[in-house]
Specification:
The structure is a single chain. About 25% of the residues have low confidence. This protein is of the alpha/beta class. Helices cover about 45% and strands about 5% of the residues. Helix 10 crosses helix 11. It has 15 helices and five strands.
Length: about 350
């Protein structure tokens, strides 16, 4: 499992260029970029490669990269009576599912933040972090937080410190009295289980679906080639070479994780979560989202951004649509600026 992604090196992508191999993705403690990193046009494809990052390398779990905490409230997260003063900057790839997961959390909590797009080749934007070279990285009042799950848990802890339990239950996200009764949402252990499921299962299904065919891979890069701190040539090359590389990688991931029918397995995965929400609840958290809702929503937002074909099929062949629309309404963007 990984909660962040980094750019690709020559050694990582060259085999994919020959349609034969797959990139080596960063372990939890990412090293400095390898000597002889690929030209900017080549490395721009790493933005989309973030979708595959958690699925290629053997997992390395460090203390800072622990599984999601089980301490979150099982029912709907209430709007904090007092939001601690936090200056939050998210260093990201716009379409990285782990970055989208952090954004979904901040949006759902109504916490203002700004984003900085990281160039996956030079990474000058995160030169302040020589030992951790993956995204997302979040700076909170100058404090660096790494790994998407750890970032969310750390900010939740700051909110909890500023809000005694009784005060935290006074209002819902929508401004009224919290309607959810005890047990209306999942238990803390259930929330943690679904958050881990997102990292360990749902994310693995994305690349084989988004880059299922050469045509779908190319269409996905119509968006990717327009974001990031890249030059004109880098953007153009990313579209063509990146699409070819990710198409090759998607086939490798299918074999690694025993994925046979990628679309059907994606439909089944999201339907499994919707079934856990149940017909009588708006969200897994009850009347308002919890951290499980936000994790699933964030990752599926990445699909919506980059995988138009996948997203259209997912809405047509699964039950995710109504829940996703409720999440969109419950978690409007809190982003204040994008650099």
């Amino acid at each position: 499992r990984a909660g962040g992604v980094r750019g690709l090196s020559v050694a990582a992508i060259a085999p994919a260029a020959a349609a034969a191999g797959t990139p080596a993705v960063a372990a939890s403690r990412a090293a400095r970029p390898a000597a002889g990193t690929v030209a900017g046009a080549f490395a721009a494809s790493a933005v989309a490669a973030g979708l595959a990052a958690s699925a290629v390398a053997a997992p390395v779990v460090l203390a800072k990269d622990a599984p999601p905490a089980a301490s979150s409230a099982g029912r709907a997260l209430a709007a904090p009576a007092t939001l601690p003063e936090m200056d939050i900057v998210l260093y990201q790839y716009e379409v990285c599912p782990f970055c989208c997961k952090v954004k979904a959390y901040l949006d759902g909590r109504g916490i203002p933040y700004r984003t900085v797009e990281v160039n996956p080749l030079f990474k000058k934007e995160i030169k302040f972090s020589p030992d951790y070279r993956k995204v997302p990285i979040v700076m909170v009042n100058g404090e660096q937080l790494n790994d998407s799950s750890h970032i969310i848990d750390a900010i939740e802890a700051k909110i909890a410190q500023a809000n005694p339990p009784a005060a935290a239950r006074k209002s819902s996200w929508f401004g009224g009295k919290a309607k959810a009764a005890e047990g209306a949402g999942g238990s803390p252990e259930d929330v943690a289980k679904w958050r881990a499921w997102v990292n360990d299962h749902l994310v693995h299904l994305l690349p084989p679906n988004i880059y299922r065919t050469p045509a779908e891979a190319m269409r996905s890069f119509e968006y990717v080639s327009e974001v990031g701190n890249f030059g004109t040539f880098e953007r153009s090359a990313a579209k063509y070479f990146g699409a070819a590389a990710m198409y090759a990688i998607s086939g490798r991931l299918k074999k690694k994780y025993g994925i046979v029918e990628e679309r059907a397995e994606l439909y089944a995965a999201v339907d499994e979560f919707v079934a856990a929400v149940g017909p009588d609840r708006a969200f897994h958290g009850g009347d308002a989202p919890d951290l499980a809702d936000m994790a699933v929503y964030g990752v599926l937002n990445a699909v919506q951004l980059i995988g138009a074909d996948t997203w259209e099929d997912l809405n047509e062949h699964s039950t995710i649509g109504p829940w996703f629309k409720r999440m969109q309404a419950a978690a409007p963007s809190a982003r204040t600026s994008a650099d």
